Amino acid sequence: MQPQRGRAIPTAALATAADVIDIVPYLLGFHPVESIVIVGLSERNGRAPQVCLTARCDLPPAPMDPGAFSPLVAPLASTDSDCVVALVFTHHHPAASGDVPQHLHDVALACALVGLSVVDLLVVGQERWWSLTCTDSGCCSPGGNERRSTSASAEAVFAGLVALPDREAVRGQLAGQTRHERDRLEPALAKAENRLTEAVLKGRLSTSLRADLRAFTARLDRHPTEGTAGRAMTRAELARFGVALTHVEVRDELWFRVDERSVDADDALLELLRRLPPPYDAVPLLLFAWSQWRKGNGTLATMAGERALDSDPGLSAARVVLDTVQLGLNPARTPPLRSPSANVGTQRFG
């Protein structure tokens, strides 16, 4: 089971089950289908419940041992969550499929094993939803409750979050040119590789890489929005930056800058990962994944990290990103990759 971490939105206050259902697509970044979703909440200090972490996995086709849900549940135990809401998003009516309620009860047991109380178990259809814990027919009728928009989704939209139609729409953000189109960059990439080889022979590799990094970061300030005609990177630029990023010194320096948000590299990284052939697209995918995790978008971060490993299985740094997401670390509380004090008395690359 591969859980999919969602966005952490500590400012989202939830008062009802309808609020939780309404905001889940914004927490994940897409509308889940045939999915189990767990929303970790904090009810401390007498406040309205606050979202700490959201996790998702595919709805299993058959009942499973409750322990099988441990990878989904465990990360919530390391957050400020003190209770959870477990939901199944499905096209099946809960009365028509005995497996759906059983899945939710198994998730509830898995939560209890790590000390998390379950405040509600919800089955969510396309138009209606049901609570498996509410016995008040005046609140939750046997026919279910109508799905409706609430202030929770309005708050998510105000925070700049988007709920795409499905997971494939999220994955589509990483799609780009065909392999044939990408392979047309091979001559330019070979030329860029040869340039750095010559720099090595002349003892000027570090100087050349610094120049490449400066050129890339300078471009970030003027990188066009997607769709602006005539201003995409040239093949020579794509090759120059793609080759430079395969060098750890350049990669890590840009990683630090992305992490501390001293640069906004997302648009440029997207162009690189959409146009470069493997394995040159691996580092742009890695850096984009880290940027998305820092922004709370665990879904896209996971997809980009997995693609980075597919492109370059030897890129161990991509595993760091995936482990960070899978562990459910809070991006707002995780320390920066390097503290300011770490730079005292040292010269930064670039």
Quaternary structure state of the chains depicted: single chain
| Overall domain count | 2
In round numbers, the mean pLDDT is 87
Please give the share of residues in helix: 40-55%
Rg from alpha-carbon coordinates: 23 Å
**Major sheet: arrangement of strands:** 1-3-2-4-5-6-7
Structural class: alpha+beta
* Tally of DSSP β-strands: 7
Total helices: the number is 14
Distance between the termini: 42 Å
> Segments where pLDDT lies below 50 for 5+ residues?
225-230, 339-347
Q: How would you characterize the largest beta sheet?
A: 7 strands, mixed
Element-by-element helix/strand order: EHEEHEHEEEHHHHHHHHHHH
Kindly list the characteristics that best describe this protein.
7-stranded mixed beta sheet; single chain; DUF4192 domain-containing protein; Cytidine Deaminase, domain 2; DUF4192; alpha+beta; 44% helix; 350 residues; 2 domains; elongated
